[in-house]
Amino acid sequence: MSNSLPVSIIIFGASGDLTQRKLVPSLFNLCRKDRLSERFRVVGYGNTAFTDEQFRAHLKEGLKQFASFEYTEEQWERFASNLVYQQGRYTDLADFKKLGSFLRDWEGSSGNRVYYMSTPPGIFPNIIDLLGLTNQLGEENGWRRVVIEKPFGTDLESARSLNEQIHKALNERQIYRIDHYLGKETVQNILMARFANTIFEPLWNRNYIDHVEITVAEQVGVEHRGRFYDQVGVLRDMFQNHLLQIVSLVAMEPPVSFDATALRNEKVKVLSAIHPMKEAEVPLRTVRAQYKNYREEKGIEPQSTTPTYAAVRLQIDNWRWQGVPFYLRSGKYLQEKLSQVIIEFKEPPHLLFPNAENHLTPNMLVLYLQPDEGMHLRFEAKVPDTVSETRSVDMEFHYADSFGKTAIPEAYERLLLDIMTGDASLFTRADEVETAWGLIDPILRAWDSQKQPLAFYEPGSWGPKEADELLAQEKRKWSTWDGRKE
Ligand code: BG6
């Protein structure tokens, strides 16, 4: 029934970057595809004094810069007529009352609402309190869903208290904690690759896999976010959320169904099987590094020890993964923008082919998350016109070849749609976010004690030599997507 109700999408922090770059282009594209409710309205809320017209012009500007799809003026006009703006403060009860009546006036007796927190993280608990105090979160006249952007807390304790605080006003099923990596097609495809095929899953365990590498490399530095980033660093910015989410999808057991509870239960189980590091283990299993010149960037403290790169070795203590290390790395200002998961299989147990040149090259499955989305399987083939020489070859699947160059939508499109249809599978549950913090906290604490030296790396490189040493101590090397060793 409630599906036929009008839908309001209220964006707090509407004059900010995220709204212009991601949220509105994604909503617009959903509208073009006729996937939004027949009656919908996007209500921007913020301190900035915009008229509706100015708000629309500001968003159109963003679209020109950031939209990855073609559109017509007519399509934009049709969508833009649903964009409105409410100026207001984030601490003022009267402004929130005004917002409430503004929404009711348009909805009539009932309507569904998405409240999207696209504000700095310090502000949203206050917003939720004010929404509660102005009776905007009760579901008597339509559903109410609240979307929370990362970072969710800065450590385990703050994440717990945030959860407690928001649970006072909301049920867990109303809360959608966003991790935009889960909206990426290729991240979801980890599940399809594993569970929509029969050929991989029998090998997906300690009997056949030597180790797993997860790389999320960025070419950009901290850009205009220096002040924010300097307080956060790479572990909070990338590992606690994106990288651990990828780990959980790669390592989880098959869920009994594809519904949110079943899926998220399995993800939490994997994270719970990773033992939080003891302080003495941290220097042996992690690398913290900063790119040279970082301290000269705008907004960065001159003595900052904030890491812009980290490498972490995780161990999942369960039957499937015992003894299989997971090596994770992520950093800013690296050589390429590249996100990938490499499953490196064990070497063949016996060298059959007598050739001095020959070496045993392990098979490798690469899940290529971005930018050239796809999957590669590397295996050995006989070199023609030799007696028994072999060489590694690749079997490749590229999304662009199979589905077209523009097939992959913006991650936010899928996430926004799921929020409106009430599917929370791709959102982080309270216990999941806390379990993830439980793994990151000990590393942060050990790093904060400054006993482990901060390494430095050249901008445009693949990171510090210490990251190579992390693997070298276990006689391994980081791989590149096509199997070349760095
Ligand atoms: C964000 C981080 O969550 O993810 C940014 O805060 C980072 O620092 C970004 O640049 C990377 O996302 P993507 O989709 O470009 O890989």
* Overall SS class: alpha/beta
Shape: globular
Contiguous uncertain segments of 5+ residues:
none
Identify the quaternary structure here: single chain
User: How many distinct domains?
Assistant: 2
Q: What is the string of helix and strand elements?
A: EHEHHEHEHEHEHEHHHEEEEEEEHHHEH
CATH topology of the largest domain: Dihydrodipicolinate Reductase, domain 2
Proportion of strand residues = 15-25%
Share of helical residues: 25-40%
- What small molecules does the structure contain? 6-O-phosphono-beta-D-glucopyranose
Q: What is the CATH top level name of the largest domain?
A: Alpha Beta
CATH superfamily of the largest domain: Dihydrodipicolinate Reductase, domain 2
Distance N to C terminus: 57 Å
Number of strands: 15
**Numbering strands along the chain, what is their spatial order in the largest sheet?**
14-13-12-11-7-10-9-8-15
Count, helices: 14
**How many whole angstroms does the radius of gyration measure?**
24 Å
Average pLDDT for all residues = 94
CATH architecture verdict of the largest domain: 2-Layer Sandwich
Largest sheet: 9 strands, mixed
Topology, please?
Elements: E1 7-12, H1 17-32, E2 40-46, H2 52-66, H3 73-80, E3 83-87, H4 93-107, E4 112-117, H5 124-133, E5 144-148, H6 156-169, E6 175-177, H7 185-195, E7 209-217, H8 226-251, H9 260-272, H10 282-285, E8 286-291, E9 309-315, E10 325-331, E11 338-345, E12 364-370, E13 374-382, E14 390-398, H11 399-403, H12 411-421, H13 430-448, E15 455-457, H14 465-472
Parallel strand pairs: 1-2, 1-4, 2-3, 4-5, 5-6, 7-10, 8-15
Antiparallel strand pairs: 7-11, 8-9, 9-10, 11-12, 12-13, 13-14
Helix pairs in contact: 1-2, 1-12, 5-6, 6-13, 8-9, 8-13, 9-13
Bound molecules: 6-O-phosphono-beta-D-glucopyranose (BG6).
